[in-house]
Write a structure and sequence with these properties.
This protein is of the alpha/beta class. It contains eight helices and four strands. The chain binds iron/sulfur cluster (SF4).
């Protein structure tokens, strides 16, 4: 229960705490300056006004990002601005907080991915005619299988020894493109070639966070894989999570 709570709340709580601290420091600085310095120089006036403006901008943008988890803003340009801020400013702020509090990176990453998923579901659910790509990691494949499913998942013979069979079936039933990528470069190539509107990506924490940050403009719904045999070897995925995502986007 505690782990589940952190996997969802860690990222937004960190950003909110950081902004409260920044706001408090800025308020004390400006308050002291106002009470002590009556005959201000122009430089000091500009400096303290600038601090107030920057802090107010950071807080208001964060509130809008929180709102974007449940509300779709009409302007595409504004949504891109909020995403840029999320990935380039607030992600960094919360990562520092995670380091300061000596917390595990995996739960922090999971929380960020969950937060980003909420925004993607709000902005991209059920838009007809959408091109959806189901992007899967190569380590899902059974290690003894000799079929080159990275070339095309359709080659899977559905023997049932790994989750690739069920995922192939799901992609055919839902009429979405599915691909297995053996690394970041291949994943980038698949995305470039297919040019999807939405990506449903399955991978580990590290690969997912690198992928969503690398292609931050693209809506990537992230699903963590399970690693019963250790990292990068015969991994599995909760098929109900994949079906949930497909149902939301189709
Ligand atoms: S389900 Fe497909 S990919 Fe997995 S072992 Fe069988 S043939 Fe190979």
């Amino acid at each position: 229960m505690k782990k589940q709570f952190f996997s969802v709340m860690k990222f937004p709580v960190y950003v909110s705490i950081a902004l409260i601290i920044i706001f408090a420091i800025a308020f004390i600085l400006v308050y002291q300056a106002y009470s002590v310095l009556l005959g201000w120089s122009l430089g000091k006036k500009i400096l303290y006004t600038g601090i107030i403006v920057v802090v107010a901008w950071l807080v208001s943008t964060w509130l809008l990002i929180l709102a974007s988890t449940t509300k779709k803003f009409k302007s595409a340009g504004f949504r891109i601005y909020l995403k840029w801020m999320l990935f380039h400013v607030y992600y960094r702020i919360s990562r520092w907080m995670n380091t300061i509090f000596f917390q595990r990176t995996s739960t922090f990453r999971e929380s960020f991915l969950n937060f980003n998923n909420e925004i993607i579901l709000t902005n991209h659910s059920r838009i007809p005619g959408k091109k959806i790509l189901l992007l899967l990691p190569h380590c899902l494949q059974n290690s003894k299988c000799r079929i080159r499913v990275t070339a095309n998942i359709i080659y899977c013979e559905e023997c049932g020894k790994c989750d690739v069979a069920a995922l192939k079936k799901m992609s055919l039933e839902n009429n979405v493109q599915a691909a297995l990528a053996s690394g970041g470069s291949m994943a980038r190539k698949v995305i470039k070639d297919f040019d999807p509107d939405v990506v449903i990506a399955v991978a580990c924490h590290r690969d997912l966070i690198e992928g969503v940050r690398d292609a931050w403009k693209l809506p990537i719904f992230a699903i963590l894989n399970e690693r019963p045999n250790g990292p990068c070897f015969e991994t599995t995925v909760n098929l109900a999570d994949v079906q949930f995502a497909l149902n939301k986007f189709i």
